[in-house]
Amino acid sequence: MNSSSGAHAAEPGSGPAGAPPGAEPGPAVEIRDLHVRRGRTTVFDGIDVEIPRGAIVGLLGPSGCGKTTLMRAIVGAQKLRSGTVRVFGETAGSRPLRRVVAYGTQGAAVYGDLTVRQNVRYFGALVGASRAAAERLIERVGLGEQAEQLVASLSGGQVTRVSLAVALVGEPRLLVLDEPTVGLDPVIRADLWDLFAGLARQGITMLVSSHVMDEALHCDRLLLMRDGRIVADTTPDRLLAETGARDPEAAFLALVAPERAAGGRPAQDPPADRAEAGR
Ligand SMILES: Nc1ncnc2c1ncn2[C@@H]1O[C@H](COP(=O)(O)OP(=O)(O)OP(=O)(O)O)[C@@H](O)[C@H]1O
């Protein structure tokens, strides 16, 4: 993963009615009629998405379908053509959300020439976290024994854990992780998903992208994307039951089969679940 924490200076008490963002009921993320262009590419041409709180939500779809762009919109790093993106009721990227939302980008965003402890303390200091909090997080992500090791000398899975500790140091309520398990072996991936599940049980909303469809089975909710559209907003059980497929990859292919047959465009009469999901 390699995360940069979107968690910077806190703005306590700046949410609706004086409560911090995330303390009020309602979805974690609400996206309405979102249009985004990147360069000459129209990535989103009017999508609507809602992400519930406290769940692990998988954002799954093939490379280039728009996962990173959607995450960038949610953390406030993406220029929008039109539409709204609200996180815990606040405009994405706005000041009250700075410590509430953390973003683990693709690509390295921790310092290889610092130790694990130095990285977590450094990013912690930026958000006013104590050294004790940094130590707790190093233990939480299972890197107690590597705390004094340079990040450059860690394995890929361990670097991902450092990034996760850095992303968590501001105590976010929404953690957005862009392909955190890419390139990792199955055992390490399973360990990381266990860690994500533990964070979700603590009440942190987790939005995790992957282009490996089987990772769907680790999620509470699924947003399946293709070509800048949400082709299903579902759960792993419903996805398998409704498509009759044996695994998530086959289910995804079953979902997009009608439009593939129609030459890559949405089919004229999509199944009810796709029509609903693609609103
Ligand atoms: N800076 C840019 N300029 C032009 N087009 C871009 C730019 N960044 C992304 N795109 C295009 O936007 C589309 C969505 O890209 P995005 O990175 O969101 O996809 P993704 O699903 O995250 O892919 P991956 O799984 O490979 O990371 C792609 O067609 C991509 O080529």
**Structural domain tally:** 1
Task: Report how far apart the termini are.
Answer: 30 Å
> What is the total tally of β strands?
10
What is the topology, as strand order, of the major beta sheet? 6-7-8-3-9-10
CATH architecture: 3-Layer(aba) Sandwich
> Uncertain runs with pLDDT below 50, 5 residues or more?
1-17, 267-279
Query: By CATH's scheme, which homologous superfamily applies?
Result: P-loop containing nucleotide triphosphate hydrolases
Alpha carbon gyration radius: 19 Å
Please bin the fraction of helical residues: 25-40%
Q: Remind me, CATH topology?
A: Rossmann fold
Domain ABC transporter: 29-252
Organism: Leucobacter triazinivorans
GO molecular function: ATP binding; ATP hydrolysis activity
Keywords: ATP-binding, Nucleotide-binding
